[in-house]
Amino acid sequence: MKKLTLYLVFIFACFAGNALAQRPTQNIDPEKLQAARIAFITSRIDLKPEQAEKFWPVFNKYTEQRESTMKSMSELNRGMESISEEEAKSRIQKRLQLQQKMLDDEKAFTAEISKVISAKQVLMLNNIARDFNRHIYQRQRGPNN
Fold this sequence. Notes:
This protein has helices at residues 2-22, 30-44, 49-75, 85-113, 119-141. The chain is an all-alpha fold.
């Protein structure tokens, strides 16, 4: 019985290895990804060259702030299994503070970017990140998927 189980595990491992070997490795170049993101957003919200010149520094600063805050929120979830009740309460408060910071940052970004682009363009920005991620995912899967 042990030999049969071992044999089945070996066969399964071989098939799994073959399946993974056939999958093309897709290394994403960060510079190409950034260029694609810029092109995607620029075309989606129809940025004019004079708008783009002012838009990108503000947008990039906001994006960096948001990513930093999201990373901090993610770090609060580490090691939750072994924390005390007091630590849990503290982490909840920190998470709420970080969420408030994200909201405050978004309000400031909206006020600042509204000086550069129209309200309609600002509104369109809300879904752009999700649309871009979906677009990249679909391109990674290929035309037949």
